[in-house]
Amino acid sequence: MEARGGIGMIGVLITTHGNLGNELIRAAEAIKGPLKNVLHVPVDQTKSVEQINKEMSSAIKKLDQGQGVLIMTDLFGGTPSNISLSFLKEGKIEVVTGVNLPMMLKLSDIKEDMNLKEYASFISEYGKKNIYSASEILNKKLSG
Amino acid sequence: MPFDIALVRVDNRLVHGQILEAWIPYIEASCIIIADDNLAGDFFRETVIRMALPRDIDLFIHSIEDFAKTYRYQRDKGEKAIVLFCNIHDALRSYNLGFHFDSLNIGNVHSENCAVCCSPSVFLSDEDIQHLSSMTKDLGVRIDIRRVPKERSGDIREILKIRSS
Lengths: 144, 165
Prior knowledge:
Chain A is an alpha/beta fold.
């Protein structure tokens, strides 16, 4: 958690269908301890696009300490992602889709000299790398 | 271009999870047509929608006027298409400009000054209710309130009845 105490850390906004994001945060915290500067905006069908926009915008304001904000969404093409993309701003706001628990666990492992763009690609690469089909690993181990 | 217009829908989220994961596979649509004045000419949003759609699905985006000039409502001929409007007003405008659909699906509507909430995702203003009422009574359009195909369709006549009594 070394990087978190620093001034001007990158903020992270999780926005998902329903409470998925909140549960991801809870699961990550259960494994790794409290996450700082992470907020969740749930999206459900009772909220209008304008309302979701407002909630995200105020969460971004709260999270931004000068180093920018990474928005993580669950599904590319879904409403949380579509609205997040309207906030995209180079150097200020990045969007990564397909959030999973491995990515959540990596959030606090930011290196000090990482800028927002590097952080976003670090997190998304890590998320992709941590998807396995178990039988493929087993076969590799057996044949290797 | 003749399309089989399999679904005409009002959805203020336009293309999102329910369209991608439920309606497109259910209808076996090969084309999405969006009629929306704000989206027409918005290159960034168009690119995002294109990226979200499966590669074999065509996307056409038009202003309301262009749309009504370009397409005719017809069934059972050509590729299956889904037509999306952002709000009920735009759907009625298209109807009045010549796109005479006989059924309108209401998915997500969140009007300001909500007068009636008729499903968790449908909040109608007085203006919406007037439009829907004139569509059903004067134009004979069937109104189908449903977010996803497998949901039971809500009965708009009941809602209009409650409103007028």
